[in-house]
Specification:
Strand order of the largest sheet of chain B: 1-2-5-8-10-11-13-16
Helix content of chain B: 25-40%
CATH architecture of one domain in chain B: Alpha-Beta Barrel
CATH topology of one domain in chain B: TIM Barrel
Radius of gyration of chain B: 26 Å
CATH architecture of the largest domain in chain A: Sandwich
Strand content of chain A: 25-35%
Distance between the termini of chain A: 81 Å
Distance between the termini of chain B: 50 Å
CATH class of one domain in chain B: Alpha Beta
Strand order of the largest sheet of chain A: 1-8-3-6
Number of domains of chain A: 2
CATH superfamily of the largest domain in chain A: Galactose-binding domain-like
CATH class of the largest domain in chain A: Mainly Beta
Shape of chain A: elongated
Number of helices of chain B: 19
Largest sheet of chain B: 8 strands, parallel, barrel
CATH superfamily of one domain in chain B: Glycosidases
Oligomer: heterodimer
Strand content of chain B: 15-25%
Order of helices and strands of chain A: HHHHHHEEEEEHEEE
Chain lengths: 216, 727
């Protein structure tokens, strides 16, 4: 009787599992992972660092960091190579040293940011289209930033033939547009820059190049 | 059963009770306001004929902050204007622009840390507040208690540029409020530094409510910048001088962080929306306004549709097209052009879908040809700025208001919003520390809100403060959490508990890492230059969102056609389904630019509500319509449209019974047996404008100003049946 009941239950479970949608499977898996990580300690959490679901891996990384910061930091270093961008981003965040006083995501240009302990050298403030600007000889600095001010347009920026930045108001919101150009500018020589909209049409915009010297 | 009772109770509670002493339209206090912003006296009659019952303007006078005088037109001239307003059946709202005028800002600006001035009045500064309130008092006195004035807008669009101000009293006021100094990171930015730049920021991005920077920015947006207190004081002064309660509004009320308090203690909040490319984007804006209003008990909501549209979003000047429209030759430099008429029709229907006290339109010079001189102004057609580029839009407004808005206004105002099932979490902590937020009109959160409405999820915007005060509403089954990088501890704990009770969280990759969302949030990428591609991407993403949730949640209404957008409101056991046809194509007004599909197309499909109904009525056609109850208990109706247009369908438990009409002296009483339905009616009594009203709880009483003589006719606007009484 028991065997028959068990067979019936197994058949029913198989039937319902077969009928489950991928979304139901995904939710079920995440709920199970959550419960398992809550019930177990750091060891239980570590098992999920290699889960197939990147959402679970990201959560496991955070939980591990919470329960054991040293283990969490070590796992974060490993996760810097994770194939998923969100996991990688969290790993970067958890391994990064936080420096007070920088406003990388602020809508203001750094030169107008008196709260930050750094020197800003403004190299250029012009209106240009297909403009060139000359960078001085290499100086000790933390960042070179190109700033366009508030815009609501979708913009693409090329510096020295490299697509250096894109601004999409639908994704980025109506905010000041500025980006870190440290890796694309050439010191001590002329730099070419032009801005287009998403159809490749040239745009005429004011911009400024700012060199930020931190750690004063 | 308990869930049903809870849902019914919440449904009633969601309809914030209006302060009964705040006036409605003088002609019909139960009606919605249909207001027009910016006007010329010459267009008064046209506006009244177009179904408007209120206009707002600042054209009568201006306060001069240098002289401290109120330079009003002559008292006699002003009285005549106000009398003219009354004579055509309109009400008047005084639009005060005192502290936003250039001269005022120049005298009382915000000050940066380096001493430079900002382009915004420092209303937290007592000197500025005193000067502004003096102007408000003079403005109120100049009205001489004229009865046509029923409202005030103390200021508009003043918080976009609000920033901390570094006068001495700013630090003093902050210390008095909190006992602390202004944090050193605070500068002229409107939000905090990014959390990655804050050494003392919690690693898991969960902030306690007393975290120093959270405390500061919360104070700044509620009290510190002074604007909310100014709105309240201006209203109080106006009401004191006029000796009666007034309608009072501030706009755009949600161009702030998602934090209660915007607009002060005004009776209503308002926000304008540019209804392109999707006219139903207004759904989400209104949901944000409702979230804001819940922080101010009794506050109700207005919504305003822009009749001006950014040309850059519809027909950019620098893009040449073939088959150029006539307006381009005649007004080549227009910056703000007339909103396309079919888009306007759909936008108004979107407003009807919600429980609003007022629906507004802006602006005069986009709807009336100011170049002709016909309206008392001769504008250069070659000028930039606002231009009249489509004469059909005002006709559409007039048609929709007269055919639908006037007749069903009292009903639209009365039907409560449904208790929430899908909530969209908007976090002020993320706005402060990750520079997020829709700010009422753009960005990822806003676009995702549109997507959720396209999926018929009717998202209820949930602020963190509401969670802290009331918890997550018990009827909520799904929480959508776009751009919630940082949360307050209270919110975090409530979300964890929500998941434990079986609630579903859908969030993106930025979500606080300490919560594992149940499903990933998938959005779409809008390319403004590609209207068709963006439209297709939005509809595809909406379908995917609905499909992802389908195993767990079914929305309260649906359609089998992605171009028919549905929204439902519920009163007791009756559903009111708003079904809007959004099938559009590129026309010959701005369609040449392929950015906005501006011409409505014919369409048909099936719409349904999650209810077993016994009768369905088309409230615009005033007739019963065929319906089908599906095996799953839903009720389905076939609908068809000639163009982009809307329908309002009443799904009742059973066919409506007859209404009875009694007239005794100056009292007209309508009764009926359907207590679970709000029944829209029209009463025609000799010598009076038709009274549109609602039979609620089986009764409606109209106390007229004088005894009723002659025949009185009553029409049930649901089934079209008429009852007569008298001669």
């Amino acid at each position: 009787m028991n065997a028959r009941l068990f067979a019936l239950a197994a058949a029913f479970a198989a039937l319902t599992a077969a009928a489950a949608t991928p979304q139901e499977d995904a939710v079920r898996h995440r709920r199970a992972a959550r419960e398992a990580m809550s019930a177990g300690g750091a060891d239980a959490i570590e098992r999920f660092l290699h889960d197939a679901d990147p959402g679970v891996r990201r959560y496991a990384l955070a939980r591990l960091f919470e329960s054991d910061a040293a283990k969490g930091k070590a796992a974060s270093v490993q996760a810097l190579d994770d194939p998923d961008d969100a996991v990688k981003a969290l790993a970067r965040e958890l391994t990064r040293e936080r420096k007070p006083g920088r406003r990388a995501a602020s809508p203001l240009p750094l030169s107008q940011d008196p709260a930050n302990d750094h020197e800003v050298i403004r190299l250029k403030s012009i209106a240009a289209e297909g403009e060139s600007f000359v960078m001085p000889a290499k100086m000790a600095c933390d960042e070179v930033e190109i700033w366009f001010g508030e815009t609501k347009q979708h913009l693409l920026v090329w510096v020295n033939d490299v697509l250096a930045a894109e601004y999409d108001p639908a994704v980025d919101g109506a905010r000041d547009f500025r980006f870190d150009a440290t890796k694309v500018v050439k010191w001590g020589s002329e730099n070419k820059m032009w801005v287009t909209d998403e159809r490749g049409k040239d745009k005429w915009l004011k911009f400024s190049v700012e060199v930020i010297k931190c750690g004063q | 059963m308990r869930a049903v009772i809870a849902a019914l109770a919440l449904s009633a509670a969601w309809a914030a009770a209006a302060d009964p002493s705040v006036p409605g339209p003088r002609q019909n206090p139960d009606d919605q306001f249909r207001f027009f912003w910016l006007y010329k006296p010459s267009t008064l009659r046209v506006l009244a004929a177009s179904g408007f019952n209120l206009f707002m303007s600042d054209c009568f006078a201006a306060y001069n902050p240098r002289t401290g005088r109120y330079d009003a037109r002559s008292a006699a001239e002003r009285k005549k204007w106000m009398d003219d307003v009354s004579a055509v059946g309109l009400d008047y709202m005084e639009q005060l622009a005192i502290p936003q005028r250039r001269e005022f800002v120049a005298l009382y600006p915000r000050i940066n840390r380096d001493g430079s001035a900002c382009d915004n009045a420092d209303m937290g500064w007592e000197v500025a507040m005193t000067a502004a309130v003096r102007g408000v008092r003079l403005a109120a006195e100049s009205l001489k208690r004229h009865p046509a004035c029923i409202g005030i807008e103390p200021s508009s669009e003043v918080r976009d540029h609000s920033r901390p101000s570094f006068r001495e009293d700013f630090a003093r006021r902050y210390r008095a409020a909190t006992g602390e100094a202004v944090p050193p990171e605070v500068d002229k930015n409107r939000v905090a530094p990014h959390y990655l730049q804050l050494a003392d920021f919690p690693v898991m991005r969960i902030v306690d409510e007393d975290y120093r920077l959270l405390k500061f920015y919360k104070w700044f947006w509620k009290k510190g910048d002074g604007w909310n207190d100014y709105q309240t004081k201006a209203k109080e002064v106006f009401e004191e001088v006029l000796g009666r309660k007034l309608v009072s509004i501030y706009d755009p009320v949600v161009r702030t962080p998602p934090l209660w308090g915007s607009g002060g203690e005004l009776s209503h909040n308002n926000q304008w929306t540019y209804p392109t490319p999707e006219p139903y984007n207004i759904h989400y804006v209104i949901s944000e306004q409702q979230a804001m209003a819940r922080g101010m008990p009794g506050q109700r909501v207005f919504s305003m549709v822009q009749a001006i549209s950014y040309r850059s979003r519809l027909a950019p000047k620098d893009v040449k097209v073939e088959n150029e429209p006539a307006w381009l030759r005649e007004r080549p430099n227009v910056v703000y052009m007339t909103t396309p008429p079919d888009i306007m029709r759909e936008a108004l229907w979107t407003c009807f879908s919600h429980q609003l006290d007022g629906i507004g339109i802006y602006a005069w010079s986009a709807l009336f040809d100011a170049t002709s001189g016909e309206w008392g102004e001769k504008r250069d057609p070659l000028a930039a700025g606002y231009q009249f580029t489509n004469g059909e839009t005002i006709n559409v407004i007039s048609n929709v208001f007269n055919r639908v808005g006037r007749r069903l206004g009292p009903l639209f105002r009365a039907i409560p919003e449904r208790a929430p099932e899908v909530a969209m979490l908007e976090s002020y902590a993320s706005t402060f520390f990750a520079n997020r937020g829709s700010w009422g009109w753009d960005g990822f959160i806003y676009q995702f809100g549109i997507q959720a409405d396209a999926a018929h999820l009717q998202p209820y915007v949930l602020y963190e403060e509401e969670i802290a005060r009331d918890g997550i509403p018990p009827t909520v089954k799904v929480i959508l959490a776009p751009h919630c990088d940082v949360l307050t501890r209270t919110t975090f704990e409530a979300l964890v508990a929500f998941q434990k009770r079986g609630g579903l969280i859908v969030a993106d990759n930025h979500f606080v890492p300490g919560i594992l969302p149940d499903l990933p949030l998938k959005s779409f990428r809008r390319t403004w230059a590609d209207g068709a591609g963006s439209d297709a991407a939005l509809k595809k993403a909406a379908a995917e969102l609905k499909s992802d949730l389908a195993p767990f949640y079914r929305p309260p209404s649906d359609s089998d056609n992605a171009d028919i957008v549905t929204f439902v409101r519920t009163y007791r056991t009756s559903d009111y389904l708003f079904a809007i046809n959004d099938r559009r194509e590129f026309g010959d007004y701005v369609g040449q630019w392929k950015m906005v599909k501006e011409r409505g197309c014919a369409n048909s499909g099936k719409v349904s509500v999650r209810r077993r109904a016994g009768a369905v009525y088309d409230l615009v056609r005033h007739a019963a319509v065929p319906f089908r109850v599906l095996p799953n208990g839903d009720t389905e109706v076939e609908v068809s449209y000639d163009t982009a247009d809307g329908k309002c369908l009443l799904f009742a438990e059973r066919p409506l019974g007859p209404l009875a009409l009694e007239v005794a002296g100056s009292r007209i009483r309508v009764t009926g047996g359907d207590r679970d339905v709000l029944v829209p009616i029209a009463i025609r009594a000799k010598g009076r404008p038709t009274r549109f009203a609602v039979v609620a709880d089986g009764e409606y009483v109209w106390e007229t100003s004088a005894p009723v003589e002659g025949e009185v006719r009553l029409v049930n606007l649901a089934d079209g049946k008429m009852v007569k009484c008298g001669e």
